[in-house]
Request: fold
Amino acid sequence: MRDRRLCLATILMAALSAGALPAPGLAQEAAAASQIQSPILTIDRDRLYAETMYGKAVEARFKADSDALIAENLRLEQALETEERDLTDRRNTLPAAEFKALAAAFDAKAESIRTAQQAKSRAIGKKREGEQQRFLEAAIPVIGSLMRESGAAAVFDKQMIIVSLRAVDITDAAVARVDAVLGSGEDGAAQSPAPTVTPTATPSPAPSPSPQP
Reply:
């Protein structure tokens, strides 16, 4: 987590110090920031993400995807438990070899389902990380415009600084400006497609034992 934060902070500093281009037609969306005149500014990157419409939209999609996966996992778990109980109940009525084969097939099915669901979970997490990265990339030019309006040379991630004056924090102004420029991020290419993972079907019951001669 710390390495990722350092990486994102480096991206932020590099882009802003290089003079990222501001979004056109936005001269006065953050008057509060323009009143700050300082060579150094700070921003709370976590708050910027959490409080903007864009960040909230990303988290809402992540929650919806996660909730859907949790519900699917529960349905699959219940189906597997039912099948396992049924197989256990039939154990004494089956030849040992047949029961062993059915049990092995059930274990393989359960493992396959588990692997598929874990892949879906990773895909959802990867989608979220990609959208968070796109948010940062889209927000950098907006923050750059606030930096220039304040006559600053650099903007630092507040969480990477030990001590700073509250007066140089532009997080509130940045949230307002990002909302004005980017909105929820759904109008452009900011939103990534949903994970393309093949749905897992509800496990079918174990086959009935073969008729005994």
